[in-house]
Design goal:
By secondary structure, this protein is an all-alpha fold. It contains 20 helices and no strands. The N and C termini lie far apart (50 Å).
Length: 479
């Protein structure tokens, strides 16, 4: 197939663009920074909210299996991510990989999809952070007026969700000031919330009653699959690791460590906490926004509940920080390729960060968090993540066959079985999401395709490279 039809960008050009003056992100992240980045985004809502809700509504004690199924699909995708990230250590995550393997249009679809995924997830997490803060302040005797702690469309309406706006503003400021500063903040939060989770496990593990695990699958296998499709959102963090690839000091070695390490640590903790929850509290009683605190209150340990509430706030803070870090880098990569307006690809001359896209993301997320009710659809985020993972797995297969000579510092094992298994697993989970998620996803995709053919295709750098040079003007005849 000719390059004009495939419209892929050679890998050498993708990587060379990172050396252009004024478009270069600073390399400051090591393997621990990248692993903490993944843990920071993975462990949050997935431990402090989703296990209880999904156990009560879909999976019962089988929520442990739901996390295992979601993790298995993620593991296949994570191994593919690690191969491509080591080959293409450039900002942009699945968008960049799609551009270099499948072509410009699939890359645009992935990038457009990731924009929705990160934005909606960040709005949802910021709103959840506000709810935890208000609840914590209420516990210690400080009442926050409803008018400044809820959106106009909440069940108990307010005017604006001010705490959500403030946390987005603070984290956006940290992110503009530098990836090093952002990473240090994230590492500190990760260490604290892991300590809180260990504290919860140590306090509660001895109180598990195996009888509460029967029946193990009260909603059947279909319920477990529905829960797995929803909790899949909890694993989006390792995608965020790859968005920071361009800022990794030794990406060929450290990116696979960060991606696979964060996934492994998070999966083990998810399954342990989910088993403890359903082993102490009957699953039907876990459908609350703070199931970890519910377990400790059930054990008559309100003092411990306060500690865990603080840990939950810290956990959600790090998730929001990484979401606000990943989104600007995807926009930055798309702008650098000409698919979005070029002024978005500006790097701060002092801090070396994509400050235009970071500030823009912060403004949009803050506005959404101020006005959006707490029940923003997590399913919409999940479908975007699953679609991106399908494309990454397909990209590994395509590159192995079309460009077998390329150096691969890390190789996905059991090729092509694992990439194919990743595609099938993600497709099965997508099929188990509700129709409303598909409907919104398809509407967003249609808008993106219109924008691509109206603006992005004609303005992309690849179009300029493929366009034939204009013929010289004919000389005018003198009179």
């Amino acid at each position: 197939m000719s390059r004009s039809l495939l419209r892929t960008k050679p890998l050498v050009e993708v990587i060379a663009e990172t050396d252009e003056e004024g478009r270069r992100l600073r390399k400051r992240l090591g393997p621990w920074d990248l692993t903490a980045l993944g843990i920071g985004c993975i462990i949050g809502v997935g431990i402090f909210v989703l296990p209880g809700v999904q156990a009560a509504k879909n999976a019962g004690p089988g929520i442990v299996l739901a996390f295992a199924i979601a993790a298995s699909a993620c593991a296949c995708a994570a191994l593919c991510y690690a191969e491509l990230a080591a080959m293409i250590p450039v900002a942009g995550s699945a968008y960049t990989y799609g551009y270099a393997t499948l072509g410009e249009l699939p890359a645009w679809i992935i990038g457009w999809d990731l924009i929705l995924e990160y934005m909606v997830a960040a709005v949802m997490v910021a709103t959840g952070w506000s709810a935890y803060l208000v609840n914590f302040l209420r516990i210690i005797g400080i009442a926050v007026p409803q008018s400044i702690a809820a959106s106009p469309w909440d069940r108990e309406p307010g005017m604006l969700n001010i705490p959500a706006v403030l946390i987005v503003a603070v984290l956006t400021t940290i992110l503009v000031r530098g990836i090093g500063e952002s990473s240090r903040v994230n590492v500190a939060i990760v260490v604290f919330k892991l300590a809180v989770i260990a504290f919860f496990i140590a306090l509660s593990a001895g109180h598990v009653k195996p009888a509460n695990w029967h029946p193990f699958l009260p909603f059947g296998v279909s319920g477990v699959l529905r829960a797995a499709a929803i909790v899949f959102l909890a694993y989006v963090g390792f995608d965020a690791v790859s968005t920071a690839a361009e800022e990794a000091i030794n990406p060929q070695r450290d990116l696979p460590i960060g991606i696979l390490g964060s996934l492994a640590v998070s999966t083990v903790l998810y399954m342990i906490v989910a088993a403890i929850m359903t082993g102490i509290v009957p699953y039907a009683e876990l459908g609350v926004a703070d199931p970890v605190a519910k377990v400790l209150n059930y054990l008559n340990m309100p003092w411990a509940s306060v500690v865990v509430s603080i840990g939950a706030m810290a956990g959600i803070t790090s998730v929001l920080l990484v979401l606000l870090l990943g989104q600007p880098r995807i926009l930055f990569a798309m702008s650098r390729d000409g698919l979005l307006p070029p002024h978005l690809a500006k790097v701060h001359p002092r801090f070396g960060t994509p400050y235009v896209t970071t500030i823009g993301t912060g403004l949009i997320v803050a506005t959404g968090a101020a006005l959006t009710p707490i029940d923003v659809s997590s399913a919409l985020c999940s479908i975007g993540t699953l679609f991106a993972f399908v494309v990454v797995c397909a990209g590994v297969i395509v590159l192995r066959y079309l460009r077998p000579e390329l150096p691969r510092p890390f190789k996905t094992p059991l090729f092509p079985v694992l990439p194919a298994a990743g595609i099938v697993a993600c497709a099965v989970l997508m099929a188990n999401l509700p129709w409303t998620a598909w409907e919104r996803f398809l509407i967003w995709l249609a808008i993106g395709l219109v924008l691509y053919f109206v603006y992005s295709r004609g303005h992309s750098r690849l179009s300029a490279e493929l366009s034939p040079p204009s013929p010289p003007a004919s000389p005018t005849r003198s009179s």
